[in-house]
Amino acid sequence: MSSHLPAFIRRDWLDVGDGHVLHLAQHGNPDGIPLLFLHGGPGGGCAVEDLRLFDRDTFHIFLLDQRGAGRSKPHGELKHNDLLHLLGDIERVRLWLNIPAWCVVGGSFGATLGFIYSCLYPQRVLSQVLWGLFIPNEEGANWLYGNQGAATLFPQDYLEFTALAPFSAKIDTLFKRYQSGFLDPDVDTRLEYVRGWLKWELALALPGAELPESGTPLAKSLAEIELHYASQQYFGAYALMREMACGIKADTVILQGEMDWVCPSVIVEKFLEEFGSGDMKYTLIKGGYHALANDKMFLEVVYAVQEMANNMREIDK
């Protein structure tokens, strides 16, 4: 998806209070359709590779690193880092940019965040494309971290994941052991726990892929922020999704991989059947995994974003 426009417009660090400063990068066409990209994790941060999803002639793209993630400061900070703060930050950024409404694109936890944002601020979202939607209820968490969900499909990987923690059927025990491991005074022990956490996630997101170097600050903050949210039941995210989903006004496209073992389609479909609305278009992607490194998912997301742009142009006529 080539573009004659400069890829980069500007970057800013925005003070949102509580000691947090967010990194915001702008790319694409300054006069294009405003589009907010929400990264996953939580704690994943944005990357220049995310721009591959978008036609930069068409969109004015905003890559926002959430609290503690990416280039936002302080790196990996957990204090005042919760769901309501992330949602409030999105609105602060929108107001700072003086944008009446924008499109939203996000995957995994970014899809969850975008879904809830469009519930709370229905007039601020023009249209959205979400993929790998994570349903942050007890079933979703147990599938991901318990011994009766994804663990039954990837038993050897789960054994390695739980080898660092005493065996327990309760995921709270697993979380506490990993929290202790992340804070261990020995640097090699801390890296072992970070690697254990991320290796399990990668085994589900893109089976067979090799874990890249996990000794970087970005890897450590991703693992710590993910655990922070998981151990707090995602700060009430599911209750907001369940209670307010009917309030979404924007055209909403949800793409879920057939082989998404992080956020399995059966949990998403159950949620949408009970709480979804007519403005939501759900598609199961045959052969799709969770990660966009999987070509099936990547191409489907690109197509959905292009269709969103086409629809926006029709509305403007």
UniProtKB/TrEMBL annotation:
<feature type="active site" description="Nucleophile">
    <location>
        <position position="108"/>
    </location>
</feature>
<dbReference type="GO" id="GO:0005737">
    <property type="term" value="C:cytoplasm"/>
</dbReference>
<dbReference type="InterPro" id="IPR005944">
    <property type="entry name" value="Pro_iminopeptidase"/>
</dbReference>
<dbReference type="GO" id="GO:0006508">
    <property type="term" value="P:proteolysis"/>
</dbReference>
<keyword id="KW-0963">Cytoplasm</keyword>
<dbReference type="GO" id="GO:0004177">
    <property type="term" value="F:aminopeptidase activity"/>
</dbReference>
<dbReference type="InterPro" id="IPR029058">
    <property type="entry name" value="AB_hydrolase_fold"/>
</dbReference>
<feature type="active site" description="Proton donor">
    <location>
        <position position="290"/>
    </location>
</feature>
<keyword id="KW-0378">Hydrolase</keyword>
<dbReference type="InterPro" id="IPR002410">
    <property type="entry name" value="Peptidase_S33"/>
</dbReference>
<protein>
    <recommendedName>
        <fullName>Proline iminopeptidase</fullName>
        <ecNumber>3.4.11.5</ecNumber>
    </recommendedName>
</protein>
<feature type="domain" description="AB hydrolase-1">
    <location>
        <begin position="34"/>
        <end position="290"/>
    </location>
</feature>
<keyword id="KW-0645">Protease</keyword>
<keyword id="KW-0031">Aminopeptidase</keyword>
<feature type="active site">
    <location>
        <position position="260"/>
    </location>
</feature>
<dbReference type="InterPro" id="IPR000073">
    <property type="entry name" value="AB_hydrolase_1"/>
</dbReference>
<comment type="similarity">
    <text>Belongs to the peptidase S33 family.</text>
</comment>
<dbReference type="Pfam" id="PF00561">
    <property type="entry name" value="Abhydrolase_1"/>
</dbReference>
